[in-house]
Amino acid sequence: MASFSEPSKVAEEKKEMVVAAKTRIDYYFSLGDLVLRFLVFASAVVAVVVMVTSHQTLYSVPAKFNHSPAFIYFVAALRVAGLYSIITTLFSFYALLKPGCCPKLLSHLVIFDVLLLGIVATATGSAGAVAYIGLKGNTHVGWKKICNIYDEFCKHVGASVFVSLFASIVLVFLILLSVYALSKKIPK
Fold it and tell me: Which residues cross the membrane (predicted)?
């Protein structure tokens, strides 16, 4: 009888070790997810604040972010990204406290993360294009460069676009991490 109980005891211990390893891996994925979502939030807030505070007046002619539709779209898109990241950070924190709680929610978050990446990337691209025209101008259509005159405004816009680009890159890593974590949950 003792010989039959020994292998089952070893099998149970192995099973417990596998479950403990999986929960540890889930914990690390959830922690990474939480950190990346917080980074998206922080970079979105910083980009919005820097863009909104970008104004300069010379010779009674102001340069403000709301004079360009691309910059307005940029601010709106990053506000959405900030709000979304607050909400998903709370979900991620909940998933960290209760590992393995809601794989369906995580799969939906991946889809929304991809949509948000599209929104943030297009906003970054449009603001970057307008900023580049402000920096270099376009002689073919007669657009003069303005960054040699409104240097502080252009520095703010450039910094905001750079921080937004960082947010886009963090979103890419967040999507990769989420997809990898979900692929580990697929039964084999």
Answer: 34-52, 72-97, 109-135, 161-182
